[in-house]
Amino acid sequence: MATYGRTTRQGLPRVAGGEPWPPVFESAVAAAAAAPAPVVEASAPAVTADAAASAVAPAAAAAVAVASTAHRVRRGLPRVPGGEPWPPASAAPVAAAAAVAAAPATPPSDVAAAVGRAEPHLAPAAGATAGAPVAGGGAALRRGLPRTPDGEPWPPAGSAPARPERVVAAPVEVAPEPILEPVAAAVAAPVAAPAPARTPMQPPRRPVAVAAASARPAAEPWPKLYGPYSRAEWAGALFIGGFGLLLAATGVVVVVNWLLGLGPMQDFIAAYPGEYHLPESAPIGIPAWIGWQHFFNVFLIVLIMRSGLQVRTQKRPTAFWSPRWNPQRKISLSLWFHQSLDILWLVNGAVFVVLLFATGQWMRIVPTSWEVFPNALSALLQYLSLDWPTENGWVNYNSLQQIAYFLTVFIAAPLAAITGVRMSGLWPKNAKTLNRIYPVEWARAVHFPVMLYFVAFIIVHVGLVFATGALRNLNHMYASQDVVNWTGFWIFVASLVVIAAVWVAARPLVLAPIARLFGKVSGR
């Protein structure tokens, strides 16, 4: 009876570009199973010597091939629901056992052992299990986890298929000469060229994480921050903000020009051109002392703002100053410089106010008529429309300028002085009544906004000076003459050079020798 090998079901490969898994091995056992082997039933007549001799050689070759290639395969879960564990536990083909039984040179026990190591992917032949098991017994299966909770390990014990043994005729003795040579040849052929051993499965190769990390480009350093933003973010914010301001200014100019084109607004501009006449006793022209006072005021106010910002942002002063009358009291050298400039500025301001009222120049910056307010509105509308009012600063300022100068000299400057004194060391600390009436928190809340007002005033003031006739205006303030030439301009440039030089020189190395003239300078 012939047996048939069972075809192994193959799935996807285990590695990219590999063979389907599990691999198919073309072994000698499959060849032996495919070849028909003569089997004699118990009731059949005895075979002849020639027939027996022809049956011994294939059987011996199949037995040797099985012994050299068979091995046990680890079994896992089934591939289909309710099926056997995969790969199935395969028994050697019955044809190999029958052929071994007919061979006189191979003991039955050796054949059974060889059959027990047959390839697991070969299925047992149908109907070949009828009969008693061979001496070796059934193949022992590896048992795993149970299929149901609290069940028996799977597969159950004793489920290994027993190797079938068929009743065959007793071997017939044959002449050794014609038998030994074919048998030797048949045996030597598989031994000399054994089936290639199956190579172990190689796990799929994956890129090493370390290599990938080393190949990854280094991350760029975080950009340096200037305040809350980096340099590129500040540039973008300035560009967007400037563009937005330009659009807003364009819209304001368009709206104001449309408004001034109306009849009632034209009558308003004609009635209030932007300035009113000063009293008859008002002086004409700008004397030289006003020019010098103007220069000293600019010089001091710029350095005061610079030192004030330094005091506000400085965390660890490099030098300290102590007064001679109180060595225990120490302030930073930057604060001493700031307060010294404040004192000089107050002295210069006091001299300026005294000279204003002594010479009658106060009428140029102090409003003397209620017409100042409608004229100031008219001047503002004309500035916004870019059709600026006609002015002659040598004789009279327009109403908007007059109000701005009045606020700066008589409102903003005293506020800056009063709040600065409250925060300085000149204020008596033990005066409980004064401290309760005038808390230091109020002074701090007012002092910084006043400084911002001075910054805005300087920007607008300088812009209008250059936009409404730079040479004439600079001659008014620096050369005290009502002509158009470059004298006032070069004096203005020289004053800027002096201010810049003092700005750069205002460092502890230069300030310390000056501060020692009025007290003690120390590093701690």
From TrEMBL:
Subcellular location: Cell membrane
Top-level taxon of origin: Bacteria
Family matches, as Gene3D superfamilies: Transmembrane di-heme cytochromes, Chain C (1.20.950.20)
UniProt-listed GO biological process terms: respiratory electron transport chain
CC annotations in GO: plasma membrane
Keywords: Cell membrane, Membrane, Transmembrane, Transmembrane helix
Principal cellular location given in the protein's record: membrane
GO MF annotation list: electron transfer activity; heme binding
InterPro entries from the UniProt entry: Cyt_b561_bac/Ni-Hgenase, Di-haem_cyt_TM, Hydrogenase_cytochrome
Limits of the Cytochrome b561 bacterial/Ni-hydrogenase domain: 293-472
UniProt topology in membrane: Multi-pass membrane protein
Region (Disordered): 127-164
Transmembrane region(s): 234-260, 286-305, 343-363, 403-424, 445-467, 487-506
The protein, known as: Thiosulfate reductase cytochrome b subunit
Species of the source: Agromyces cerinus subsp. cerinus
Taxonomic path: Bacteria, Bacillati, Actinomycetota, Actinomycetes, Micrococcales
